[in-house]
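Lab notebook page, bench 4
Experiment: in silico fold of construct C2
Operator: M.H.
Input chain length: 180 residues
Purpose: comparison with the prior construct
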Amino acid sequence: MTGPRIIIFIVAVFAVIVLVLAMFQNESVSKWFRYEWLDLFYAFIAAIIAGLLIEFLYRRYSSKSRILQTTMTPPSESSKFMAKLVLKENQEILIKEYERTFGRTDFIEIAPTDDLLFIGKEHFQITRDDYCFYIEDLNTKNGTSLNGEDISGQGKRKLTDGDEILVAKTLDIKYFEEKE
């Protein structure tokens, strides 16, 4: 129990005891309360202060269980980027996932608004296996080119460092891999 809960519990118990005694109107008990209520009040306050002090000291000096400490997870291999797309004005999109789909929302602040209309909602996908990255056009109306060759409907194509990707004949992108 925490400090405020302990105080509420003690007050509730005290109130129940007083109510029970008042209901039975036991003469000797009511006489005792009449003359000793101030001493009882001071004892009650002292008990609250002692309880809070004990809880403070316990929390301050007790050793914490390792299970209650913050859990740390080791960094995963996918947390560092393995590839990146470089757009005009050297804007970069890092690729950290094993599979990522790119569409018009990925290029909102990069491409002019009129050009965004030609880029599909889900235009192309870059996937990674153990050693290579691949690009695939997702059957879009305006297609995707890799190094000047249209890859629409051709499935996955292997990417190499320095490849040029043309999205919907409007957006030029350079692909780079991290050297490990």
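Observations: The mean pLDDT is 81. Helices lie at 3-24, 27-61, 113-116.
Next step: discuss at group meeting.
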